[in-house]
Amino acid sequence: MMEGKMSKTILYIAASLDGYIAGPDDDISWLSPYQGIEYGYEEFLAKIGAVIKGRRTYDIEVRNGWENAFSIPQFVLSKNKPELPRPGVTFTNEDIAQVLQKIKQITDKDIWIEGGANVARQFINRGLLDEIILTIVPVILGDGIRLFDNIHKRRNLLLTDVMRFDKGLVQLIYSVG
Ligand SMILES: NC(=O)c1ccc[n+]([C@@H]2O[C@H](COP(=O)([O-])OP(=O)(O)OC[C@H]3O[C@@H](n4cnc5c(N)ncnc54)[C@H](OP(=O)(O)O)[C@@H]3O)[C@@H](O)[C@H]2O)c1
């Protein structure tokens, strides 16, 4: 029998030390000084077969002209239709468990849960997340969009790795119990 590799759902995201993924008014300018830093993004991306993100995150990427940064299929959760259809981008309003099932039929690579907080929360609350790769940026924002808000129950985590990169970036890798 063929050995089937189980694809993992991974929340791969950057946050401030005080747990924000964006400052007020979707401010992500605090991430800019870290653009050029080698922190394993390419290696991570090589293991990914699809990306799931919320419509707000997608819209911001489009607004910034980053929508072509992804060569892997993107699934955008939204109750709305895209203003402009783009190749490789699927808008979906299906239940997230259903979305995962469909993606697993097209890839056995890992699935990147890109965010934002709204989407991350749903995967955590539904018990659909296997791993968290959290890059902590050395800044305290004080206000903005909290990564872990409205989590319904305690989740025990197992720390599987810790890495330190240039300019004080720290990456924590947890498997979700
Ligand atoms: N620091 C980082 O690494 C990082 C990573 C990602 C994002 N961000 C930032 O996070 C912010 C966005 O996060 P957010 O939490 O506000 O929004 P989000 O999670 O990106 O998007 C939320 C939207 O997605 C749609 N949606 C979510 N779940 C759905 C579901 N189950 N079914 C159908 N539609 C669903 C809804 O849009 P509709 O109204 O269209 O239905 C909802 O308003 C931005 O500032 C972005 O730049 C930061």
Poorly predicted regions are: none
Trace the largest sheet across and list its strands.
Answer: 5-4-3-6-1-7-10-9
Q: What is the CATH third-level topology name?
A: Dihydrofolate Reductase, subunit A
Please bin the fraction of helical residues. 10-25%
Write down the domain tally: 1
Shape designation = globular
Distance between the termini: 28 Å
**Percent in strands:** 25-35%
Strand tally, please?
10
For the record, the CATH class is: Alpha Beta
**Helix and strand run:** EEHEHEEHEHEEEE
Main sheet characteristics: 8 strands, mixed
Mean pLDDT: 95
- Assign the CATH superfamily: Dihydrofolate Reductase, subunit A
Count of DSSP H/I helices: 4
CATH architecture annotation? 3-Layer(aba) Sandwich
Bound molecules: NADP nicotinamide-adenine-dinucleotide phosphate
What Rg do the Cα atoms give? 16 Å
Structural class: alpha/beta
What does this 3D model show about the protein?
Strand 9 (157-164) and strand 10 form a beta hairpin. With 177 residues, the protein is of the alpha/beta class. The protein is built from four helices and ten strands, in the order ββαβαββαβαββββ. The model has no long low-confidence stretch (mean pLDDT 95). The chain has one domain: Dihydrofolate Reductase, subunit A, CATH 3.40.430. It has an eight-stranded mixed beta sheet. The two termini are 28 Å apart. Helices cover 20% and strands 32% of the residues. NADP nicotinamide-adenine-dinucleotide phosphate binds next to strand 1, strand 2, strand 3, helix 2 and strand 6.
